[in-house]
Amino acid sequence: MNKEDAPQLSVVVPVFRGARFLDELHRRLSNTLASIHPHYEILFVDDCSVDDSWAILERIQRADPHVRTLRLMRNAGQQRALLAGLEHAKGAFVVTIDEDLQLQPEDIRILHSAI
Q: 27 and 66 in contact (C-beta within 8 Å)?
């Protein structure tokens, strides 16, 4: 990856039993981030989910070059999943969001305009 292609913005998403939210979250995050900057990444960190989260994340990653995934070896909790994501994020700026859509992915535009 050359410097021009390096992500400007990374979004780290810890995931635990979030299968029902992942497709919608990915769609909304992708639309929002593409409207901000063409070079972004979405980094999903699966905290050893027991539902179909990992299979969904693998499918999303295969279909979208902006998506990267990590899977923790054992359930370590949301804070450890966030830390793992922050350690692997490549963006100049990093935002975190939960997978459950309680926070609106579109609000990232507000944060970006403040930078």
A: no
Cβ contact 18:49 at 8 Å: yes
Residue in 45, 37, 100 with CA at minimum distance from that of residue 67: 45
pLDDT tens digits for range 43-99: 999 999 999 999 999 999 999 999 999 999 988 889 999 999 999 999 999 999 999
Of 104, 109, 93, 100, the C-alpha closest to 39 is: 93
Report d(CA 85, CA 81) in Å as an integer.
6
Nearest to 97 by CA among 87, 88, 107: 107
